[in-house]
Design a protein that fits this description.
The protein has six helices and two strands, in the order ααααααββ. By secondary structure, it is α+β, with helices and mostly antiparallel strands. It has two domains: 65 residues, Orthogonal Bundle (434 Repressor (Amino-terminal Domain)); 60 residues, Cyanate lyase, C-terminal domain (Cyanate Lyase, Chain: A, domain 2). Strand 1 and strand 2 form a beta hairpin. The longest helix is centred in the middle third of the chain and has 25 residues. The chain is globular. It starts with a helix and ends with a strand. 14% of the residues are buried. This is Cyanate hydratase. It catalyses: cyanate + hydrogencarbonate + 3 H(+) = NH4(+) + 2 CO2.
């Protein structure tokens, strides 16, 4: 069994049982964004978290062990994403990436926004012209050091 097999098993069970990520997150007691990333193979669960996820998705012991292993992060199936929703994020970065970089550097100086000391919040924003997706990304600023 591989970590990818565990992700497939989790997703299969989620669909079959109609499980919502927010419900899983409530039982793990962490954000739906982080728990979803962990279940999709991008984060490491501790033993207690992995056990809870294992019970929710009826996972075998070897799958629960793999949930506790450090995953290979950023593992999309292709260099340029083909899934339309993920591709739109790729497109946004292609169009606005230099603007985001310029504005962060102007405000903070030379450095990066951490994806490790990071949080994300995704919400539905009602709008009479069609509901909107509201995404807030918050990462610690890490300046480059001189030496």
């Amino acid at each position: 069994m591989t970590r990818e097999d565990v992700t497939d098993l989790i997703y299969y069970t989620k669909v079959q049982k109609g499980i919502k990520w927010a419900d899983v997150a409530g039982k793990v007691k962490l954000s739906k964004e982080w728990v979803t990333a962990a279940c999709m193979g991008q984060m490491t669960l501790n033993k207690q978290q992995a056990t809870i996820v294992g019970k929710i998705f009826s996972l075998p012991p070897e799958a629960i062990a793999l949930l506790q292993a450090v995953p290979y992060k950023g593992s999309l199936p292709t260099a340029v994403p083909t899934d339309p929703l993920i591709y739109r994020w790729y497109e946004m970065i292609n169009v606005y990436g230099t603007t985001i970089k310029e504005l962060i550097h102007e405000e903070f100086g030379d450095g990066i926004m951490s994806a490790i000391d990071f949080s994300m919040d995704i919400k539905r924003e009602p709008d009479p012209k069609g509901d909107r997706v509201n995404v807030v990304l918050s990462g610690k600023f890490l300046p480059y050091k001189t030496y």
